[in-house]
Amino acid sequence: MAIEAGLGLVDQTKIVTAASELARNTLDYGKGGEAIMEIVQSGARRGVRIVFQDQGPGIADIELALKDGYTSGKGMGLGLGGARRLCNQFDIESKLGKGTKVTITRWK
Predict the structure, then answer these.
(1) Rounded CA separation 95/61 (Å)
(2) Between 71 and 37, whose confidence is greater?
(3) Residue ranges making up the domain that contains 23
(4) Residues 25, 92: contact at Cβ < 8 Å?
(5) What is the Cα–Cα distance from 69 to 78, expressed in whole angstroms?
(6) Confidence band of 75 (pLDDT split at 50, 70, 90)
């Protein structure tokens, strides 16, 4: 999809890297879920948007979870913050006991 949207190699790599991290989080912490990908357009800009959604336990403190070095598991604590830095747009919503939704977009 990134190629179809016209993203260059660097932007392709960034969205794939962010998506890989978020997909892993969806599986490891959210106990599974879904990812919905789409090509988006805003004026002359094209990009790729991916929404990751799970029904897991949720994130108690989103700001803390986005800080480098913080982990609630066995990871290095770079995942969410790193994914945010790799995207042009990043949005996260989480409700305890209900799950988490992360939306990322990378524009050409």
Answers:
(1) 10
(2) 37
(3) 9-107
(4) no
(5) 6
(6) low
State how far the Cα of 72 lies from the Cα of 89, in Å rounded to an integer. Answer: 24
CB burial string 82-105: b at 16+ within 10 A, e below: bbbebbeebebebeeeebbbbbbb
**What is the C-alpha to C-alpha distance for residues 47 and 2, in angstroms, rounded to an integer?**
7
CATH code of the domain covering residue 36: 3.30.565.10
Q: How are strands ordered across the β-sheet holding 45-54?
A: 33-42, 45-54, 99-107, 89-95
Q: How confident is the model at residue 62 (pLDDT cuts 50, 70, 90)?
A: very high
Q: What is the dihedral sign for C-alpha 99, 27, 24, 69?
A: positive
Does the pTM surpass 0.85? The reply is yes
Instruction: Tell me if 37 sits within 8 A of 23, measured CB to CB.
Output: no
Residue 38 lies in a domain: yes
- Whether 3 maps to a domain, the answer reads no
Task: Say how many domains are in the chain.
Answer: 1
Indicate if the pLDDT at residue 77 is higher than 80: no
